[in-house]
Amino acid sequence: MHLRTIPALFALAAVAIRHALGGDDEAAGTGRLNLPVRIGIRTGAVVFGPLGEGLPMDSTVIGDTANVAARLQQQAEPGTILLSEATRLLAQGYALVEAIGPLALEGKAEPVLAYRLLGMSHRRSALDEAASAHKTVFVGRDHELTVLNEFLRRVENASETQQRS
Q: In whole angstroms, what is the distance from residue 116 CA to residue 95 CA?
């Protein structure tokens, strides 16, 4: 499994949880549980472990990622799932989202971009895959970029030479 697909799996799991608890539009009149949950998902680094000297099962998750996910969950309407910008970008092509604008979240100095998750696909759209490939930036790869640019220059020169012949 590629690490880029993990946020899509989290979003898919959130949709399944919402459906199982009846927080979707399909629960009405079916006899299923009707517990419209609120879910917030943020992708990023966290610290997980025991808090203090308590029992081994007294573990917690801390960090900005956990804080933002909790704040997104608080801002979500019942029966909805909110994604952060980082999660939306990583789930792009799998997730159908609706921008709900920047949200002022407790503990954050700047508003946070948030998206309502409308649906999921088990397969990534080829167009989205191609579009996301162009967002990759070379960082700390000056030598490699120089080599690639030199190859491009040679190919362009060879092409011009062939056209003149």
A: 10
CA distances from 22 to 28, 39, 106, 139, 140 (A): 8, 13, 29, 45, 48
In this prediction the pTM is 0.67
- pLDDT tens digits, 18-70: 878 876 666 566 666 778 889 999 988 888 877 766 666 677 888 999 999 99
Strands 47-50 and 95-103, bridge-based pairing: unpaired
Question: For residues 12 and 25, what is the distance between their CA atoms, to the nearest angstrom?
Answer: 17
Cβ atoms of residues 41 and 76 within 8 Å: no
Task: Enter the tokens of residue 52.
Answer: 């203090």
| Rounded Cα distance, 129 and 144, in Å | 24
In the chain, helix, strand, coil percent, each to 5?
Answer: 40, 20, 35
94 within 8 A of 14, measured Cβ to Cβ: no
